[in-house]
Structure formats: structure tokens, C-alpha cells
């Protein structure tokens, strides 16, 4: 299995672990998403205001739950992320652009933990 496919599987498995069920009808309510964020990403010190904003951003249809489509990354989000990484706008992310992103992301995580 490729690294990318493995990463996608991990995202799906993590969603399933915290959601209220399996399959296409599985959703995350606010409590489940908060638990996922605190245990997998942000830690116990995550401000509830940030979680509220994140939940409301993901819950695009406003039904009070986040389904896998809402939780997953849309093509538009991938395009936006790619354009952010492609600093020189040449249509490819070269090694230095990638390293810059990874280093910035790691620094951001270290600062958040401090």
C-alpha cells in the first residue's frame, strides 16, 4: 500500500473510531468530534471556542453532525492547499517548498505545545 493510501485509510479509520457507527451513515456529533480533536490533534488543552468554530466549519449542512464527506478533504480544499504550497506558482511543489511547509508545520506544533 502506498504511503498516501495508507494515510487516507488512517483518516477514515480515525473517523470510524470516534463516530457513532460504520458505513455511509456514520457521523460525528460535537461531543465525538471534540473527543477526536483532543485525543488525536489538539490535546486536552484545546479551547472549546476553537472546537466550536472547527465543528461549525465542518458541519456545512448545519444538521448538527459531521458526516464523512464533511470530515474529508474536498477537491477545492486540496487545490487551495496545493496553491499555498506552490509558492512560486509553477504548478508543482518542489522539494524546498515541501520542506518549508513541513518545517513550518512542525514549528507551529512545537509552539502550540509550549
TrEMBL record:
Q: Which InterPro entries match?
A: EF-hand-dom_pair, EF_Hand_1_Ca_BS, EF_hand_dom, S100/CaBP7/8-like_CS, S100_Ca-bd_sub
Q: Does the keyword Metal-binding apply?
A: yes
UniProt cross-references to PROSITE patterns, sorted A to Z = EF_HAND_1, EF_HAND_2, S100_CABP
Which ranges carry the EF-hand domain? 73-108
Report the Pfam families cross-referenced here: EF-hand_1, EF-hand_5, S_100
Single GO term (MF): calcium ion binding
Q: Which UniProt keywords apply?
A: Calcium, Metal-binding
Q: Which GO terms describe its cellular component?
A: cytoplasm
Concerning Gene3D superfamilies, the annotation shows: EF-hand (1.10.238.10)
Q: What is the top-level taxon of the source organism?
A: Eukaryota
Instruction: Show the SUPFAM superfamilies listed in the entry.
Output: EF-hand
Note whether Signal occurs among the keywords.
no
The name of this protein is: Protein S100
Protein's organism: Liparis tanakae
Amino acid at each position: 500500500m502506498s504511503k498516501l493510501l495508507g494515510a487516507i485509510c488512517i483518516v477514515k479509520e480515525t473517523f470510524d473510531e470516534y463516530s457513532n457507527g460504520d458505513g455511509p451513515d456514520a457521523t460525528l456529533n460535537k461531543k465525538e468530534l471534540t473527543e477526536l480533536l483532543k485525543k488525536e490533534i489538539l490535546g486536552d488543552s484545546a479551547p472549546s471556542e476553537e472546537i466550536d468554530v472547527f465543528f461549525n466549519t465542518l458541519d456545512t449542512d448545519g444538521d448538527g453532525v459531521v458526516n464523512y464527506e464533511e470530515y474529508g478533504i474536498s477537491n477545492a480544499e486540496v487545490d487551495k492547499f496545493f496553491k499555498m504550497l506552490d509558492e512560486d506558482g509553477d504548478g508543482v511543489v518542489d522539494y524546498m517548498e515541501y520542506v518549508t511547509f513541513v518545517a513550518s508545520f512542525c514549528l507551529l506544533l512545537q509552539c502550540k505545545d509550549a
